Amino acid sequence: MPEFILSEKNKLQGSSNFDIWYCTIEGYLKAKQLGGYIKSNYKTFNEPSKFEPNDALAGIIIFTNCTDSVKRYIMNCESAYEKMEKLKSLYKLDDSHNHGEWLRRLGSLKTTNLKETMNVMNEIMELFKLLENSCMNKSNMEKITIM
Predict the structure, then answer these.
(1) Beta pairing partners, 12
(2) Which Pfam families did the record assign (predicted)?
(3) Average pLDDT, whole number, for the chain?
(4) Residue 12, CB half-sphere, CA atoms under 13 Å: how many?
């Protein structure tokens, strides 16, 4: 078994935690020099049998870090790439959903003391940056209204 297994609550459960899960798994695979196996199918490489053990390791890391209900969707995939592509097609949310979620979070932020205010301001700035990076920049007046 691989040495990297997420706690049950951090395993892929569906679209609700896909983005964070993907970032975690991708980072770990890169650290283990296995990141390329989720970016392209090893079967297209020269001498694919040479790459099969690493692909199998990348695939088992993905598989063991999913809940049982998610595993059912990828258990017949033959490569780490196929597993990740299937998971993306099932659980990766498009930007329009993310925008709605980010805007909902912006509207729900409230504080009662100075420490909370600083934390909320940091979260607001992070959400504004996410919106800006996804080409849905808010005007300064909209930002001031939200704040």
Answers:
(1) 66
(2) Retrotran_gag_2
(3) 82
(4) 30
Q: Are 128 and 138 in contact (CB under 8 A)?
A: yes
Which structure tokens are listed for 55? 């692909």
Question: Residue 128 CB: number of other CB atoms within 10 A?
Answer: 18
Q: Which residue has the higher pLDDT, 121 or 42?
A: 42
Task: Please name the residues in contact with 80: beta carbons below 8 A apart, sequence gap of 6 or more.
Answer: 34, 37, 38, 42, 55, 56, 58, 59, 61, 62
Helix (H) or strand (E) holding 85: helix 80-91
Whether 140 shows a pLDDT value over 70: the answer reads no
pLDDT of residue 119: 75
Contacts of residue 98, defined as CB under 8 A and 6 or more positions apart, other chains included, come to 130, 134
Domain boundaries, the chain: 8-91, 95-146
Q: Does the structure show a pLDDT above 80 at 108?
A: no
126/112 Cα distance (integer angstroms): 20
pTM: 0.64
99 to 34, 130, 137: CA distances (angstroms): 31, 9, 10
Q: Could you give the CA distance from residue 147 to residue 142 in angstroms, rounded to a whole number?
A: 9
Instruction: Give the Cα separation of 57 and 72 in Å (integer).
Output: 18
